[in-house]
Design brief:
globular; 0% strand; mainly alpha
């Protein structure tokens, strides 16, 4: 074990302490107003990028930007193969940037892009590209590979499928997270968005979770349990609380809770290496998700009252 892995693992465990935790998130959700919640978040470690006068959208973006900053700090302590692990896990930020670029379509308005620095996968090769077909061609020559479609929607879905597929081999600790995320993505596409995957993307999804679920889940399928039977056994947990197609959100919340639990288990591993690093990324990401959800709940509380807090308790 190299000294860089030792230093990186120590730093990972220290960074994991920079969470606000579930109890603090619940307190945020119970804030009287959105402004109160944002001010409270700005006094936590998320104050790195969240400011007291921020709007809800800006504060949520700041929470995510703080998570990315933490991952960049962690990567700075790791050896090259450790940086590769963090870069792969951080690809969601580059997907968010790509989604935003395509949504802007050259208008120059919208959310600010995340600054990935050394954690970028495509980096400068896709900067400023707003046309989906052109972006697809640019991505072919990067580690992302071909997204599998030329519309903005196909690029977004294809990148998420590629990400899941590429995580499973190098980061076995995250393999079941990737499979479950893919299953939930397909369920949301079919049951919430009422869309059908194009054949190229369906084949790609099948490489992650097998063809069974891909073949049966669709806008006309209404039996959740029957569809879930076609998933790998270590993936079905994501649908334990999804009793109806319209309740995919419950599975997505369960996914984050599992990420959190698994992350803590990895952090408790003895020694120094990839496991605790992956665990730190997991618990920090889950904490950021909870904080964003708490901010949204506080904003809804101004409109609908205590039911917003009750909804947060169900999710988080």
């Amino acid at each position: 074990m190299s000294t860089s892995w030792v230093a990186g693992t120590v730093r990972a465990r220290a960074l994991a302490q920079r969470r606000i935790g579930a109890d603090a998130a619940r307190q945020l959700a119970r804030s009287g107003t959105r402004s109160d919640a944002v001010r409270a978040v700005s006094q936590t470690p998320y104050g790195h990028a969240v400011h007291p006068a921020d709007s809800l959208a800006a504060a949520q973006h700041g929470v995510s930007a703080t998570l990315l900053w933490q991952l960049r700090v962690l990567a700075g302590w790791l050896p090259h193969d450790g940086v590769d692990v963090v870069r792969l896990l951080a690809r969601g930020f580059e997907i968010a940037n790509i989604d935003e670029q395509l949504a802007q379509d050259g208008r120059g308005v919208g959310d600010p892009l995340y600054r990935l620095g050394a954690l970028a996968t495509a980096g400068h090769r896709i900067v400023g590209i707003h046309a989906a077909p052109v972006l697809r061609e640019a991505l072919r020559s990067t580690p992302w590979g071909d997204p599998g479609g030329s519309s903005a929607w196909e690029v977004g879905v294809g990148l998420r499928l590629n990400w899941a597929d590429q995580v499973m081999g190098p980061i076995p600790e995250a393999a079941r997270w990737a499979r479950a995320a893919t299953a939930l993505l397909l369920a949301r596409i079919a049951w919430s968005d009422r869309r059908v995957l194009p054949p190229a993307l369906a084949r790609r999804a099948a490489t992650v979770i097998g063809p069974g679920f891909v073949d049966v889940v669709g806008p006309t399928s209404t039996q959740v349990a029957a569809a879930v039977e076609h998933l790998p056994a270590d993936t079905r947990w994501a649908f334990d609380r999804v009793d109806r197609p319209e309740n995919v959100w419950r599975g997505e919340a369960a996914w984050w809770r599992r990420i959190d639990r698994d992350g803590f288990a990895l952090l408790r591993e003895q020694g120094f290496g990839r496991g605790p690093v992956v665990g730190a990324v997991a618990v920090l990401a889950a904490d950021a998700w909870r904080a964003r959800a708490a901010l949204a709940s506080a904003a809804r509380h101004e409109v609908v009252g205590d039911s917003a807090v009750e909804a947060f308790d169900v999710v988080a």
